Amino acid sequence: MNRYPFHILLLSAFPVIYLYSLNADETHLSQLLRASAVLLICAAILWLMLKFTVRDGRKAGLVVSFSILYCFSYGPITASMYSMGLCPIPAQMRIRYVIVWILIYLIAVVLLLIARRSVMPVTRIVNIVAICLVATSNWS
Fold first, then answer.
1. Phi-psi category of 88—alpha, beta or left, where left has phi over 0 and alpha has psi -120 to 50?
2. CB atoms within 10 A of CB 15
3. Count of beta carbons in the 10 Å neighbourhood of residue 71
4. Which residues, at least 6 apart from 5, have a Cβ–Cβ distance to it below 8 Å?
5. Contact at 8 Å (CB) between 119 and 5?
C-alpha cells in the first residue's frame, strides 16, 4: 500500500495553479513553478514533522491537505458570503470570523488525529478530489 499521501502533492500545487489560471496574462510559468515548489516543500516538511509526531503518515497527510485547503479557502469563502449578503463583515466583526475559523480548524484536526478507525477510505477520496481539482483547473 502507498504510505505517502499523493494528495499532498496535488493540493499544495492547486492554490498556485488556481491563482495562475486567474492571472495567466500577468504571470509567467516560472512563477507558477517557483510558488508550487515552495508550497510543496513546506507541505512536505509539515508532513514529515506530523508523521513522526503522530506516527501515522496517512493521518498526517490528511491534516496537511486539510490545512492547505483551509488556509487558502478563507478569503474566497468570506468574499463569497459577503458578495451574497450573507454576512457583512465590518472590521470589528472580522476578528470573530477568524477566531471561529481557527476553532473549526482545530476541532477538525483534533477529531482526525484521535480517530481510531483507518483513514484509508478518506485518503482515497481526498486523492480523487485532488486529482479532479488540478485536472479541472483552467490552465489557459
1. beta
2. 18
3. 12
4. 47, 57, 58, 60, 61, 62, 64, 65, 123, 126, 127
5. no
Please state the domain extents for the chain.
Answer: 6-135
The H or E element that residue 50 is part of is helix 29-54
Quick one: cell of 83?
458578495
pLDDT in tens, the chain (140 residues): 455 677 888 888 888 888 888 887 888 888 888 988 899 899 999 999 999 998 888 898 889 988 988 888 887 877 777 777 776 666 556 777 788 889 999 999 999 889 888 888 888 888 888 888 888 877 65
